[in-house]
Structures are given as structure tokens and as C-alpha cells.
């Protein structure tokens, strides 16, 4: 899309208009954050501040337009962490939209495309207990290092992934079924949670909700393991019961109405139904690693689960977790505030299906949902018994997804921004080192009882700890149970400047040599076929196409090309790494590079 057309299009002023090249950082941030007050008023709404993208298509009608580079790059950008030219060419060779989307969704079949294996043995078993203040202090220091390596490994998976949507969906689900690594603490449980999110990335949402509900990570994060019913007296902890409905499966209000989906009484009764779950290491050895246990005649505590009658969303019985989830996924069969308050015509399961579909839409299309498209997604999700893959198949092949107003309209999250830098500019770092476990610093004074551990992946830690944290997205540790709000919230004065600083430093090899994060301008240019025989204009345009969703105007493009060659119209131009060394950071510093 031509840049100026986008900036003038309906609904673009808040995001893309703010990123126009003439505005300073302060103006950019002020415009992007102008609707913060409105956003704060919408806590009980599923619609964030802003307006949906204007579109000629408001359903899941299949895309029948031309299939060219613009459409191909769009679907790849939205489903991966940046698109290096090699992966664009590989996708291009597949020939058709259906073939490309099928390849992106192939990770659904775990027998054909299995999950990545655990990078180290310490991730798959609980460590032995330690006693004593110093030993516990050292264990805490080691666990912090191990959690950092999980983040490093996951980012490495993001940028090494080949034509697959799995890691993008995994990032979305960790921002939906939110836990926090600094609350969970155990690296083994954090890793199991991450792998569960990968396993169900394109799976069945009902099954996903069940397994996430009893995961050690969720039991710890939302206090499910502290939800008891002992000796006939309730000591119920309602945290998970509340968030299960508010954030994970239903939302507060029925779509498009002011009708609440549940009451405080429903929260209290569902909390009673969820009593008795304990962590998998409640007994040693763990019964089912990293998945919680309930009394089954042998394992768990027989006295901690409430077996009395509960009334939940209009139904009564001796309910447990499976019953609660089954009733949730039947909604709207009952409206606690007004049984007649929900319009007719909505199928069983619509409430949850809409809530989940809205999250998928916001992640892959635009952060303000188009309610008509989300409605179509929800009905398709119900038809497929909450299987996620058919919905993503329909969305990624829909006319709405390829509408000109959608292309380039999203603001990159820090993880996508960093992935784009690494993949599209060819930044390199040493291969992930799965040291088992991270070892003590050999230079440390042997008489020192408090251990200092060596980071086996300092270059990756520079990205995941030094860059992503500063830009506002620490992997596996969202700010609260609602997760990262996304959209225009990704940009503030500090985070925008952090993005500029990390781009400039990365592409000028300005980081300490000890971090071994390096940029090779010659290799960057050589991604383009026939780069050495191309004119400066052709090479520059190819590199712009790789990283930008917009066709730059002549002034901006001319400034970039002047970095490749002082007179880029000179027919005698020859491939010059020195020009690429200037071109790359100039391209990455463009406001347009923030969008995808």
C-alpha cells in the first residue's frame, strides 16, 4: 500500500498518523496515548479504545483477489516474527494462498510437526529439596538464571521457526491464560506452562482451558492450590474462579449488551466446585508432572474437595471442574441479571466462542475488533466444537484479512519488533547453549558460599532481558492477570526511544563484543536475489519491501537510497557493504518499521 493512502484512510489517525515521519517522539506518544482516559472507562467492555478498521468485507467471505507479493508478505508478517527474504521466497514457491496458509497451520498436527524438545534435562523434573539459608539462597539464584534461559530458548524458537504460526499463537495464549514467571518461580513449572501453550496453540480450546486450569503454573499463579474445603468448612480462594470467567472464557458482559455473564454468587459457587486441587509434587514423586491432582482414591487429599450441591449459572449439582467448564461452554443458556436480557438467535457456546474469537482477531487482524467478523468467527468456532485451526484457516484466507485497510495497521509488540530486527536484518548470535544446569563462575573465590552463575547465552539475554524488558514485554511475565493491553499501549516516550536505541545499536554493532550480537551488512544485502548485479534503486526497493508494509514516498525512499549510493541513479553502481551499513539502521529507524 502507498504510505500516504494509508495515513489518510479512515480510522488510521490514532496509530499510523501518529507515526508519520514529520512528528517528533513527544507528538507520536501524545497521539498514540490520547485515548488512554477512554480506555480506562472501558474496563467492563470487550472493546478497547479506538475504532475498527474500515473494510469492504465484514465477514469471513474467502479472498478472491489477486495473490501477489503484498498479500503474501502480509500473511507472513502477521503470523511470524519478521520475514527474512529466504522464508518469503520459500512461501512464494508454494504458489497459492491456500498452500501458504496450510503450511503456516501445519503445526496443528503434532505427529507431523512435533513440539520442540526440552533444551535441558533440568527442565523436565523437579529438583531435590534443599535446606539451610545459604542453600536456599543459591537455589533462588540458580532458578532466576534458569528462568532467563527459558526466555532465551523461547525467543530463539521464535526466530528460528520456519513458515509456522505456532510461536505467534503461543505468545498470544501466554497473554490470554496469563501466569507470571516471577510468581510461579519454579523454572520447571514455567517451562511446562510454555509447552502446554505450544501444544494447544491450534488445538481444541475446551481441552486447552481444562489442562490450563489444572496446570501447576495456574494453580500457583491464581492460588488454586490454596482453595480448600476442610472438615466441612470452606476456605475457598476465589481468584481462579473469577478470572476463569472474566478473562479466560466469557468476559464480563455478553457481546454488544450490558448484560453480565455471571454474578458474584456464580464466582463463589464455582470456587467451591474447584476446591481440592494440589500441585503435582504434593506427593513425591509427582503423580502427573506439572499438572495438578485431585483426590482420585489414591492421590491428593480426600477431605479438601467440596462435594455439596452448588448452583452455577442457573444449574445445580455436585459440580467439579469439568462440570463448571461444561456449563461455561454452554452459554448463553442463562443470564443471571435478566434471563430475557440476551437477544434470541445465539447458539449454545456463543459467549465463550465470541470471547476467544475476539482475542484471535485482535492478535492477527487489528487491535480494535470488527464485531461482524468476530461474530462469524465465533459461529464457525462453535460449528467445529471449539477447534481453533478451522477458524484461523478461514480468517487467514478471508477477504477481510487482506483488505487494504488492514495491511500494515498493527503496531509491533516488542517481541515482534525484536524478531523483525533479528530475522530481516540477519542479526546473528551464538547457537543456544542448553548448559545443564548453568554453572558457577569459575573465577569466583572458592571460599564464597553464595554462588554466582554464568549466563550461557548472554547474547540472547541481551535481547530478552536487556531489550524486551525495557520496551515493556518480559516474556512469560505479563504485568498482571489481564496481560499486556497491546495496541497503542505498546508505545510510550520511553519504549519508543528504547526501540530506536536498540535498532541503532544492533545495526551498528554497538553492543559489547562479549554479547556477540552482530550485523553483517553484506549478508543483509545478499538476501536479495541477484543483489550484486542490481541497481541501487532495485536493491533498496527490495529491502524496503522485505521490512515495510508501505511503499515509501519519493522523498523518504530517496533519502534511504542515498545511503546506498550518493547518486543512486548512477548506472555504474556496484554492490557496496558500506552503503548497506548506512541503509539498514536508517530503514529500521523509520516510523513505518514499527507497523506490520
Order of helices and strands: HHHHHHHHHHHHEEHHEEHHHHHHHHHHH
Q: How much helical structure, as a percent, in the residues?
A: 40-55%
Approximately what portion of the residues adopt beta-strand conformation?
under 5%
Biggest pleated-sheet summary: 2 strands, antiparallel
Report how far the terminal alpha carbons are from each other: 12 Å
Strand tally is: 4
Question: Roughly what is the average pLDDT, rounded to an integer?
Answer: 88
**Side-by-side strand order of the widest sheet:** 1-2
Indicate the radius of gyration in whole angstroms. Answer: 25 Å
Number of helices: 25
Overall, the morphology is globular
Return the structural class. mainly alpha
* Uncertain spans: 1-47
Architecture overview:
The N and C termini lie close together (12 Å). A hairpin with a 2-residue loop joins strand 3 and strand 4. The chain contains 25 helices and four strands. Helix 4 packs parallel to helix 6 and helix 21 (493-507) runs antiparallel to helix 25. It has helices spanning 3-8, 25-32, 36-41, 69-79, 85-94, 97-104, 133-160, 166-174, 181-184, 187-199, 205-213, 216-221, 239-249, 264-273, 321-328, 350-364, 371-383, 388-396, 414-424, 458-471, 493-507, 521-526, 536-547, 554-564, 577-588; strands at 228-230, 233-235, 310-312, 315-317. It has 596 residues and is mainly α. The strands form two sheets. The chain has a two-stranded antiparallel sheet. The radius of gyration is 25 Å and the shape is globular. Helices cover 44% and strands 2% of the residues. The protein has a domain at 521-594.
Amino acid at each position: 500500500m502507498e504510505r500516504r493512502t494509508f495515513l489518510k484512510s479512515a480510522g488510521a489517525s490514532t496509530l499510523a498518523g501518529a507515526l508519520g515521519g514529520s512528528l517528533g517522539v513527544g507528538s507520536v506518544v501524545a497521539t498514540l496515548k490520547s485515548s488512554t482516559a477512554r480506555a480506562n472507562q472501558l474496563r467492563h467492555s470487550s472493546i478497547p479504545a479506538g475504532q475498527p478498521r474500515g473494510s469492504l468485507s465484514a465477514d469471513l467471505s474467502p479472498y478472491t483477489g489477486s495473490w501477489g507479493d503484498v498479500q503474501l508478505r502480509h500473511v507472513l508478517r502477521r503470523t511470524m516474527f519478521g520475514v527474512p527474504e529466504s522464508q518469503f521466497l520459500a512461501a512464494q514457491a508454494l504458489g497459492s494462498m491456500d498452500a501458504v496458509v496450510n503450511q503456516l497451520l501445519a503445526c496443528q498436527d503434532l505427529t507431523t510437526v512435533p513440539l520442540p524438545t526440552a533444551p535441558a534435562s533440568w527442565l523436565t523434573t523437579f529438583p531435590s529439596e534443599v535446606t539451610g539459608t545459604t542453600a536456599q539462597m543459591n537455589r533462588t539464584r540458580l532458578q532466576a538464571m534458569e528462568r532467563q534461559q527459558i526466555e532465551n530458548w523461547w525467543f530463539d524458537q521464535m526466530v528460528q521457526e520456519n513458515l509456522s504460526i505456532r510461536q505467534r499463537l503461543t505468545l498470544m495464549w501466554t497473554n490470554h491464560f496469563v501466569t507470571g514467571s516471577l510468581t510461579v518461580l519454579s523454572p520447571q513449572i514455567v517451562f511446562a506452562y510454555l509447552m502446554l501453550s505450544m501444544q494447544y496453540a491450534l488445538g481444541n480450546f475446551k481441552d486447552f482451558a481444562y489442562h490450563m486450569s489444572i496446570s501447576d503454573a495456574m494453580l500457583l499463579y491464581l492460588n488454586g492450590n490454596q482453595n480448600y474445603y476442610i472438615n466441612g468448612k470452606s476456605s475457598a480462594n476465589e481468584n481462579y474462579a473469577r478470572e476463569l470467567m472474566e478473562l479466560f472464557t466469557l468476559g464480563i458482559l455478553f457481546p454488544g449488551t450490558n448484560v453480565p455473564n455471571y454474578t458474584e454468587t456464580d464466582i463463589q459457587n464455582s470456587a467451591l466446585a474447584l476446591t481440592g486441587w494440589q500441585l503435582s509434587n504434593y506427593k513425591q514423586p509427582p503423580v502427573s508432572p506439572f499438572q495438578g491432582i485431585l483426590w482420585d482414591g489414591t492421590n491428593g487429599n480426600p477431605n479438601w474437595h467440596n462435594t455439596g450441591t452448588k448452583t452455577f449459572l442457573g444449574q445445580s449439582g455436585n459440580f467439579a471442574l469439568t462440570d463448571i467448564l461444561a456449563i461455561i461452554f454452554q452459554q448463553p443458556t442463562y443470564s443471571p441479571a435478566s434471563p430475557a436480557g440476551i437477544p434470541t438467535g445465539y447458539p449454545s457456546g456463543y459467549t465463550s466462542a465470541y470471547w476467544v474469537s475476539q482475542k484471535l482477531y485482535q492478535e492477527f487482524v487489528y487491535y480494535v475488533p470488527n464485531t461482524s467478523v468476530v461474530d462469524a468467527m465465533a459461529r464457525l468456532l462453535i460449528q467445529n466444537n471449539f477447534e481453533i485451526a478451522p477458524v484461523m484457516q478461514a480468517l487467514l484466507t478471508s477477504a477481510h484479512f487482506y483488505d487494504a485497510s488492514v495491511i500494515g495497521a498493527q503496531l509491533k509488540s516488542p517481541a515482534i519488533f525484536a524478531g523483525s530486527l533479528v530475522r530481516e536484518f540477519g542479526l546473528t548470535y551464538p547457537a543456544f547453549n542448553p548448559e545443564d544446569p548453568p554453572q558457577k563462575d569459575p573465577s569466583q573465590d572458592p571460599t564464597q558460599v553464595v554462588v554466582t552463575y554464568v549466563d550461557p547465552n548472554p547474547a540472547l539475554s541481551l535481547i530478552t532481558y536487556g531489550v524486551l524488558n525495557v520496551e515493556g514485554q518480559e516474556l512469560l511475565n505479563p504485568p498482571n492477570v489481564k496481560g499486556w493491553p497491546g495496541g497503542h499501549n505498546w508505545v510510550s516516550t520511553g519504549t519508543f526511544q528504547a526501540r530506536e536505541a536498540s535498532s541503532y545499536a544492533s545495526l551498528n554493532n554497538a553492543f559489547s563484543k562479549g554479547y556477540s550480537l552482530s550485523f553483517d551488512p553484506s549478508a543483509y544485502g545478499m538476501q536479495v536475489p541477484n543483489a550484486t548485479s542490481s541497481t541501487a534503486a532495485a536493491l533498496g526497493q527490495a529491502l524496503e519491501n522485505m521490512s515495510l508494509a508501505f511503499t515509501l514516498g519519493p522523498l523518504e525512499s530517496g533519502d534511504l537510497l542515498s545511503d546506498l549510493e550518493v547518486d543512486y541513479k548512477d548506472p555504474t553502481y556496484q554492490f557496496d557493504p558500506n552503503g548497506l551499513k548506512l541503509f539498514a539502521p536508517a530503514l529500521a529507524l523509520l516510523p513505518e518499521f514499527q507497523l506490520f
